[in-house]
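Listing S7. Sequence submitted for prediction.
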Amino acid sequence: MTTKAQAAPGERSRGQLFGRRKGHRLRPRQLRLVEEMLPGLRVCLDGLRAHGPAALFDRPVREVWLEIGFGGGEHLAWQAAHNRDIGMIGAEPFVNGVAKLLAAIEDEGLGNIRIHDDDARPLLEALPDNSLDRVFVLFPDPWPKARHRKRRFVSHETVGELHRILRPGGTLRFASDIADYVRWTLAHIRAHGGFEWTAEHPRDWRERPRDWPGTRYEAKARGAGRRCAYLSFRRA
């Protein structure tokens, strides 16, 4: 039987921003990883509030980065493997995606990843001011119907929280293959006023940077003929 994170306090009243929590039945190895490995990697929000994100890791880390909605974990695992001195926190409520990331952690010996397997908003609220150096929001659920757009992760509230938890000069990276969501994000970032869009040329947002690995979702979007946008913002 798989474990399941409890709903965060206030989640029902605020509305759910993510879709399903579970897909196909977990394979035996995935089940073992969720039951045996995940509890030791799960972020304790009380400890996070008290001691900050760097204290989550067994070894000293130079910086702490957060990925919100890591999907299958390909990007998060790549960043952790190529930046062993960085502490990586991943937030993802979909248990099958968490299981895939756990497999990568075991296969590659990644000791610099911690996981929040629930709604990302309580995690953001628990993070101290100016405590992160980089945040990734890559291909979030677009909630394309007008009546569902209030469920989009990017909102006035979350942009404010991201600004609060990032250090001055810290980076927010966003990607989407939905043009409307790209415009939506740019509008919310500009309305906040605390971020600078770093693009100087069209290629800066049309081409994925070298230190930004591709994912299966991105490949699927491109295969369907959708153009992806890669936005980077600097926290003022």
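Caption to Listing S7: primary sequence and predicted structure tokens for the chain studied. The longest helix spans residues 28-41. The longest strand covers residues 166-176.
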